[in-house]
Amino acid sequence: MRHTITRDGIVAGVLGATAVAIWFLGVDLAYGQPFATPAALGRALLRIFGPPGSEGTVVFVAAYTIFHYAAFIVVGLIASAIVHAARYQPAVLAGAMMLFVAFEVGFYGLSAALGEFPDFGSLGGVLVGTGNLIAAGVMGTYLWRTHPELKGQFAHALSGEE
């Protein structure tokens, strides 16, 4: 099977988004409030377009789910482009690793800041961070397994050799 940037990016994004959705469904079920997380995030998302009306939980969950999957597909496409670029320039992987670490640190800071707002207060930074790491692990595993040459490219990129 041929692996294109688009195909790999979409599959990785859908896998990552699904992993996070399952994680938060489990967390919400543990608290006895199924779909509370996507409903809160959907309410906040729709608030960007104006004050919330009587949209209802189903609309909030649907709006956030569409946004959630679209965002993860964009991230998957970026990750896939990096993996495909590494075929020609393995050093790209070292830069991508540094960018990933910086993104994770920024993401945890944003999660902590959003925790101060009422719509996000129930989403602890640890829960969001865990979901984010689960998604990164699932997406990375998919790309790693579908591109076995990555192991050698990654070793080369981290060795510092030209």
- State the end-to-end distance: 31 Å
Shape: elongated
Tell how many strands the DSSP assignment holds: 0
Low-confidence stretches: none
Instruction: Describe the sheet with the most strands.
Output: none
Could you say how many structural domains there are in total? Answer: 1
Q: Can you write the helix and strand succession as a string?
A: HHHHHH
How much helical structure, as a percent, in the residues? Answer: over 70%
Question: How much beta, percentage-wise?
Answer: under 5%
- Rg computed from alpha carbons, rounded to a whole number of angstroms: 18 Å
Helix/strand-derived category reads mainly alpha
Question: Helix count?
Answer: 6
What is the residue-mean pLDDT, rounded to a whole number? 85
In terms of topology, how is this protein built?
Blueprint: H1 5-30, H2 36-47, H3 57-85, H4 91-114, H5 125-146, H6 150-159
Structure, briefly:
The chain has 162 residues and is mainly α.
Explained architecture:
With 162 residues, the protein is mainly α. It has one domain (5-159). The protein has 6 helices and no strands.
Key features?
162 residues; mainly alpha
